[in-house]
Amino acid sequence: MALLTCHMYSHALFTNISFNLCLPTPGSGDKVDYAALKRDYGYQDGLPVAILLHGMYGDADSWIRYSNIDRYAQDRRIAAVTCSAGNSFYQDMPGGLSWETFFTKELPAYLRALFPISPRREDTFIGGFSMGGYGAWHLGLAAPEVFSKAASMSGALDIVNLYAEQKNIPSPSPFNWKAMFGDPDALEGSGSDLFAQYRRCAEAGCVPALYQACGTEDFLYKMNQNVRERMLAMGCSLTYHEGPGAHDWTFWDREIGNMLDWFLKDRKKAGGSVIMG
After folding, report:
1. Is pLDDT larger for residue 31 or for residue 132?
2. Which residue has the higher pLDDT, 123 or 31?
3. Which long-range contacts (CB under 8 A, 24 or more apart) does 196-200 make?
4. Distance (Å, rounded) from C-alpha 156 to C-alpha 150?
5. What are the residue boundaries of the structural domains of the chain, listed by start?
């Protein structure tokens, strides 16, 4: 596994930014010759890629420090990318930076230009936990032509109710709701409301497959149950998983393998054949 920290200038963010890339490479158990390298690692056709989003207070290194993402990605021959986005909820912020544009347009194009990453929608996935779980669905539904699958672990998925619960709390908040969303009282039905986003994608006939996981002891468990019921009522084809666990890396690290396997399940090769997950 090659673990690279890369630096780039972002036109969307008007600043330099860094990201981590876990790139599968031959290990000690592999037969190392050039023919096997191309065949087994898929560099010639391009590797599938998962862009992975962090939660509140996190950054690009959260996945690297607290999970075994590098080993999981190596075992599955999938590239994994992590990038810092602050407490932005992955929005094009009226009072800040254009994170949605960066993650849906600029970062995928940059990865495909510089690394052996597949350009195909069928090979491009996005996932995250907590705030990043919301971000994964939001970005996947904002750019369904880019991402074929979007996965949330312990996601803060109901942004409308989350804001309603927090807007009158007097203590300092890690989120600047007005900077992120402009008028947070108008979130319902907006381009940041996942239910409205899903409805628009369904009407347009282009929807990423969605995955949802949450621990039964998670403080967001009830929200995730409610979101699941609403999405199913809308006709969403949703893969759902729950199990013992709280809002922590013990649950997320255990769930990452399931998420990556779901990303890769029934993925079509460039030539048309199907790789079973």
Report:
1. 132
2. 123
3. 197/137, 197/138, 197/141, 197/142, 198/141, 198/231, 198/234, 198/236, 199/234, 200/141
4. 14
5. 2-265
Q: Residue 203 is inside which H or E element, if any?
A: helix 194-204
What architecture is domain 2-265?
Answer: 3-Layer(aba) Sandwich (3.40)
- What would the two tokens of residue 277 be? 């997950």
For residue 137, what are its two tokens?
């669905």
Which of 209, 216, 223 is closest to 245 using CA atoms?
216
Distances (CA, A) of 188 to 17, 91, 100, 191: 32, 15, 18, 9
Identify which of 142, 135, 129 has the alpha carbon closest to the alpha carbon of residue 213: 129
The dihedral of CA 89, 61, 84, 253: what is its sign?
A: negative
pLDDT at 271: 53
Collapsing DSSP states into helix, strand and coil, what is residue 91? coil
Q: Which letter does DSSP use for residue 272 in this model? A: S
Give residue 26's pLDDT: 81
